[in-house]
Structure formats: C-alpha cells, structure tokens
Amino acid sequence: MSVRKDQIRIQAQTLFRERGYVATSMRDIAESLGIEAASLYNHIHSKEQILQEICFRMAEHFFAAIEPIVKSTVVPVEKLRLAIEAHLAVIAAHNDASAVFLHEWRHLGEPYLSDFKLMRNRYEKIFRTLIEDGIKSGDFRDMNIALTARTMLSAMNWTYESYNSKRKIDPAETASHIGTMMLKGILK
Amino acid sequence: MSVRKDQIRIQAQTLFRERGYVATSMRDIAESLGIEAASLYNHIHSKEQILQEICFRMAEHFFAAIEPIVKSTVVPVEKLRLAIEAHLAVIAAHNDASAVFLHEWRHLGEPYLSDFKLMRNRYEKIFRTLIEDGIKSGDFRDMNIALTARTMLSAMNWTYESYNSKRKIDPAETASHIGTMMLKGILK
DNA sequence: TTAATAAACTAACAACTGTTAGTTAGCTTT
DNA sequence: AAAGCTAACTAACAGTTGTTAGTTTATTAA
Questions:
Q1: Cα three-residue angle B39-B19-B26, rounded to 5 degrees
Q2: Phi, psi for A134 (deg, rounded to 5)
Q3: Are A52 and A105 in contact (CB under 8 A)?
Q4: B32-54 average pLDDT score
Q5: A155 closest CA partner among A177, A178, A173, A172
Q6: Alpha helices in A137-170, H assignment, sequence order
Q7: A40 exposed, middle or buried (CB, 10 Å; 0-12, 13-18, 19+)?
Q8: Who's near B37: CB < 8 A, 6+ residues apart?
Q9: Is the overall model pTM greater than 0.70, yes or no?
Q10: Is A103 exposed, middle or buried (0-12, 13-18, 19+ CB in 10 A)?
Q11: Taking CA atoms, what residue in B is nearest to A153?
Q12: Residue A80 near residue A69 (C-beta atoms within 8 A)
C-alpha cells in the first residue's frame, strides 16, 4: 500500500535474514529507517505482520512463476527443467525475502502458521506431480517421489546465500547447472 | 564431562531445534529438566556455551565420519558415494543436533563464529576435492566445482527433518537414493 | 561426627522486548 | 485562515531476558 510500509518490509527482510526474526527488534528495524520504534506502528500492526507479509508475498511469487509452466503442454522432462529454472529465478530476484521465507516461517503464529504449511505442501506437491509425470512417461526412473522432490527443492533453496557475497554469481548459470544436475540425476 | 551437563545439552538441542536458539530461554531449558534457570549455571557458563558445544561436537562428528574415507584408496566415484553416505549417516544419528548445527551457528559470538566458518569451509573443501578428483579421473563432467559441492551438501542437509515425523523413514534408503541421484547428476 | 562438596534453591539485577497513549510538527484540502 | 490528516515524536507499560549473589539441602570424605 503505502511507500513507507514497503520500506519497512524491505529493511526488515534484510535484518531478518542477517540476524533472524527473533533476534531482530522493532528498535533495530526503526533505527535502520532513521525513526523511532513507536513510529513503525503508524504503518504496521505488529512485528509478526511484517513476517507474515514477507512470507506470503514470497509464496505468491513462487506460485506465480510456476503455474504457467505447469499448465503448459511441454513434455514432462522439459516441464520439470522449466520449473526448476523458474523457482531459482524467483530466489535470485528476491534474495533476502527468500532467506526469510525459508527459515523464519516457523515463527508465524496461528492461523498463519497452518496456512503457510498448507501452501508449502501444495507447492511441493506440484514438484511431486511433475516428477510422477516423468516417471509415467518413462523418462525418469521409478523412485521415491516425495524423497526426490524434497531433495530437489533443498538443492535449490540454498542459492539465495550465493547472491550475497563479493563474488559475482550468475543466476542463469546456477540455474542451468542445478537443473542439469537434478535432471541427469533422475533420468533413466 | 558431568552427566547433568550432558542432559542440559540434550534438552537444549531439542528446544533449539524446535523454537530456535534465540526463542529458547534458559527458563525453558531449566523447565524441561525440572529445575530452576539459575541452577543451570552450576553446570554451564552461559547460554552460548551450550550452543558452542552442540555446534563443535557436530563438526567433530562430521570430520570423524569422513576422514577415513578421504584417506582410503578407493576410486574417486566410490569415494564420493561413501562420503555422501557417511555424511547422511551422521545426520541420521544426530538428528536434533544436526538441525541446530545447520541453522543456529550464526548466533555464535566471536571468536567461535569465525572458527565455525573456517571449519565449515574446510569441510566443504573436502567435498570440492572429491569432486575435483572425479573430474580429473574423467568420471565426472567438467563443471563449477564450488557450485556442485554446495548443491550436493544442501541436497543432503535437509534430511534431519525427515526423522522427526510419524512416518518411519529408513536412513539407509534415503542415503542410497540421494547418493545415486547426486552421482548420476554429475557423471559423464 | 565433622567438614567439604555438589547441586539445587530464592531473590533480585539491569537491560531489553513489543506495544500503547498522548502529543506535535508539517502538509494538504476546504 | 481553518481544519484535517499523516507521520513523526516522547514517555511509559508490563513482561521477559541472561545472569549473579547468597542460601539451603543432601551426599560424600575425613
């Protein structure tokens, strides 16, 4: 909504990523914006609301990136490759927020925590289905689908770390390499 | 050393894993042992010392598991497969501690934080070398070694999650599947 | 029996936490 | 010029934090 609220969320993303949600105080966030902690409450309802918005906005980004690919008519192997690249592109585009999304969601209170878990499971299910389709088409080996999906997602979800350091990393090269590695890993 | 100190560390592992280091208070740890918070200080020096011991003990476990494999004379491909299985066996054997080791180390203070990062880099370097050897022997494709090592470790490091739920997961099957997936992913 | 030790206790501390209430200064709209 | 709104401020709150000091109790050693 307001521009100030966006600034708060962006500063919070950085701090939550660096120190973690619990170790970041409202006074830390305020200081990074050059205002007092109490002034934050002109723009947001609570500390947890900031976390909620970071987490659920990221969830939307991931779904938005992957849904057109799922609905497309390309062959299973290529569909999974595109999904991997889309997922990695979202992480590269929303670096700090991805770190918070991946590590700090457990500090959400109810009912947001349950909603979050449901959404995450729904997202993983998309990858499970893509893998299953590849098995049915005879391209992938017959394997433990849940285990494969979790392994693939974890092999991707560390990449936000690499966009922080001094070395300049090319997101496209990263995506290409991880995509190839994961696909070769499960092809017949 | 003392049995009570071990009990404190074990309870802390569970709580740190569930709620995170910062969100776990000394009173929480004390309560889980049926004593008062102040009584903990008869056995430990500080809250952070507990975290230090969890993290550095785990580091020792990982090195101890992998060093004999590195020193062995098996062929590069098999060496990497054994290293993957050893790494996954350590995680399976030290479930809660692995979660803390992987996620809470950043709350270490100096000089422990720097020491930890050095050790972790040294450990990753072992995997980088194993991959490099496989490239030199002509078994693995020529690829970004650092990127490959990080991807492999991340593909392994989520597995502590799976040993918590109601479903009974077989660590050996997990290790076998992830090992195969990673190796096929990088073989020529 | 006496002395020493280990491990618990109660009480308290200063600092910090998220948040609320009430106020003020500067724009914008009437 | 007057009124209203936005976004900052100061001050304070009740609760929690890690930790220390001093005391008590039970077990072990002399």
A1: 15
A2: -70, -30
A3: no
A4: 96
A5: A178
A6: 145-157
A7: buried
A8: B25, B26, B27, B29, B30
A9: yes
A10: middle
A11: B155
A12: no
Q: How many angstroms separate the CA atoms of B170 and A100, rounded?
A: 30
Q: Protein B50 CA to nucleic acid D20 C1', in Å?
A: 19
Report the distance from CA of residue B18 to the C1' of nucleotide D28 in Å, as an integer: 39
Closest CA to A167 of B133, B144, B109: B144
Q: Token pair for residue A17?
A: 């990523």
Give the model confidence (pLDDT) of A133-143 as tens digits.
999 999 999 99
Report the amino acid identity of residue B84: I
Distance, CA of A37 to CA of B48 (rounded, Å): 28
What tokens does A120 get?
A: 């995450």
Tell me how far apart the alpha carbons of residues B56 and B104 are, in angstroms, rounded to a whole number. 12
How far apart are alpha carbons A51 and B88 in whole angstroms? 32
Q: Using DSSP, state whether B187 is helix, strand or coil.
A: strand
Q: What is the pLDDT of residues A11-46, one digit of tens each?
A: 999 999 999 999 999 999 999 999 999 999 999 999
- Side-chain-side CA neighbours of B118 within 13 Å: the count stands at 6
* Inter-chain touch B157–A154, beta carbons under 8 Å: yes
How far is residue B117 CA from its own chain's centroid? 13
Nearest nt (C1') from B26 Cα: D18
**Cα dihedral value A4, A93, B156, B153, nearest 10:** -110
Half-sphere exposure of A8 (CA within 13 A, CB side): 27
* Per-residue pLDDT at B1 exceeds 80: no
B144, B139, B107, B141: which is closest to B128 by C-alpha?
Answer: B144
Q: Minimal Cα distance from A149: which residue of B?
A: B155
